[in-house]
Amino acid sequence: MKDTRILKATKENFELAKQEILQGDVVAIPTETVYGLAANAYDEAAIQKIFEAKGRPQDNPLIVHIADLQMLHDVVSEVPETALKLAKAFWGGPLTMILPKNDRIPDAVTAGLDTVGVRMPSHPAAREFIRTCGVPLAAPSANVSGKPSPTTAEHVYYDLHGKINTIIDGGTCEVGVESTVVKVGDDSVEILRPGKISINDFLKVVSTVTIDDGVFTKLDDDRPVASPGMKYQHYSPNANVIMVEGSLSDFCRYVSKSANEKTAVLVFDGEESLFDIPCVTYGRRNDSVMQANRLFDALREIDRREDIQTVFARVPKQEGVGLAVYNRLLRACGFEIVSMEKAVIVGLTGQTGAGKTTVGELFRKDSDFGIVDCDIVSRTVITQPDVKARLVEYFGEEMLLKDGQIDRKALGKRIFANEEDRIFLNSVMFPPITVQINKEVQQLRQKGYHLIVLDAPTLFESGANIICDTIVSVLAPAEIRQERIMSRDNMTAQDALNRMNAQKDDEFYRSRSEFVIENADSPEQLNAQVERIITVLKEKINGN
Q1: Which of 250, 242, 319, 322 is nearest to 282 (CA)?
Q2: Which of 16, 47, 142, 247 counts the most CB atoms within 10 A of its CB?
Q3: What pLDDT was estimated at residue 341?
Q4: How far apart are CA 264 and CA 301, in angstroms?
Q5: Closest Cα to residue 378, out of 441, 440, 424, 432?
Q6: Cα distances (angstroms) measured from residue 481 to each of 461, 475, 518
Q7: Which of 377, 169, 147, 174 is nearest to 239 (CA)?
Q8: Is 423 helix (H, G, I), strand (E, B) or coil?
Q9: Does pTM top 0.70 for this prediction?
């Protein structure tokens, strides 16, 4: 067992620790986010010592830390213009960018990927130590893998004493949660792991910001990830953490019914007096910055209580740095959430020409309903570079308009006449469509909607019906549908028939739907059918 020492962040101690780095050992260092376990990013044997000390899975990539922009070129093979803009805006600071890696970076750092996460910390001790070492440092959080990240030198010592030689003490970390990790695009970023730098911050620099589905959902075990913190359960104390989503009164009611002598709560400052069981707080209700700063310390406090087996946690706001706090708690509880807030997700679908669009407009007029327009989602997805490239490769460049976008009308005519083409299109389009639908549902939930309609012509084909509580299908006689399609889309009778034949029959929809709207009569009768359904859905939400 090693005799672990804690050294103050001084130039003399930096020189001592530098020798360990250059001799292929690891050193725990402070950053503004959390403490990191650092090794020479070029030394594969030293990198392995990080994984051994932490007990970290080998397929979980590491982030490389640099002291200045010159060092960036020693880590990556290419620096896109967007990355330079982001660096100018946010470095040094809690931002990690995923960029093409330099050949000098071993595969052990990147889990075999051809990209590497890079960041330039703002913590003066971190930057000065990297400069002193003269090499970039690969550094994940300096804790036992899966446990709450360390925000003090004492946290590191508790986790890793006897496993490493040296901890540099730079005080308590200012931010308290790990850096925001983004994949850099052309004037765009995709957030892989949320942190202090938020969506609104990025929109001051780039025009488009998206969020990877791994921020909100558990990823498949065999999916490779470009960022740490996306795949495995992280930040977990020994106790089982369960987030309870709802109002404070909902939370209290749930705890009173579910608590036992080995239960505690993780709540906001000032709420302790409401409970007669152990309470740990992690900041004020409306102060996400404070919550980020205190979360890991709170989880470690829970860890110190051997009498606690279950912790019910209040849910933070999911905006700004609050999204990072929510993401860390989500992973700490292994995605186990109890929702006290009722919500009904309605799948609205039907055959082409049956009048689904008209029914959708009736739902839109009711302000209680949040709408996900899956046709707009589809139009957005088809412009994604990887999707467009696969479609052009398969269907040919004749499917492109003058502006370089896919000709959706020509594509539709072709796929409705050929089942093989339609199957290929669905295989390319449906996975990213489903991801985007989930994101938009989550956003509507965050805005307070309890009734959400997925207006989706291909609800069943895409698999989006799985997340729906209720299915509403719109049907109409074949001759009426054919006339509507011919008039609406300026189609021949045969083209309209091809489109109709490509869809499921009436029985398919009836057998899978809670509500079926027959759209063959007057607009007044159609309105009456929709109003009855809206009334039933609202009664579901209100518990009647």
Answers
A1: 322
A2: 142
A3: 67
A4: 11
A5: 432
A6: 20, 9, 12
A7: 147
A8: helix
A9: no
Residue 388 burial (CB count, 10 A): 18
Q: Three-class SS of residue 394? A: helix
- CB atoms closer than 10 angstroms to residue 157: 19
Do 4 and 166 meet the contact criterion of CB atoms below 8 Å apart? yes
What are the two backbone dihedrals, phi and then psi, of residue 220, each rounded to the nearest 5 degrees? -60, 145
Count the alpha carbons within 13 Å of 168 in the hemisphere toward its beta carbon: 32
Tokens of 495: 């083209």
Cα distance between residue 348 and residue 139, in whole Å? 48
Nearest one of 356, 353, 360 to 478, comparing CA atoms? 353
DSSP 8-state secondary structure symbol assigned to residue 382: T
Would strands 180-184 and 188-193 be described as parallel, antiparallel, or unpaired? antiparallel
Cis peptide bond upstream of 355, omega within 30: no
Distance spanning both ends of the chain, measured CA to CA: 64
Cα–Cα distance measured from residue 46 to residue 26, given in angstroms and rounded to the nearest whole number: 7
Q: With contact defined as beta carbons under 8 Å apart, do 499 and 422 qualify?
A: no
Sign of CA dihedral 509, 510, 514, 516: positive
Question: Tokens for 93?
Answer: 């600071």
If you average pLDDT over residues 98-108, what whole number do you get? 96
Phi/psi class of residue 335: alpha, beta or left (left: φ > 0; alpha: ψ in -120 to 50)? Answer: left
466-497 confidence digits (pLDDT tens) = 778 899 999 989 898 888 889 887 888 888 88
Distances (CA, A) of 186 to 80, 91, 116, 120, 220: 8, 19, 18, 21, 28
Q: Is 216 helix (H, G, I), strand (E, B) or coil?
A: coil
Higher pLDDT among residues 108 and 225, named by residue:
108
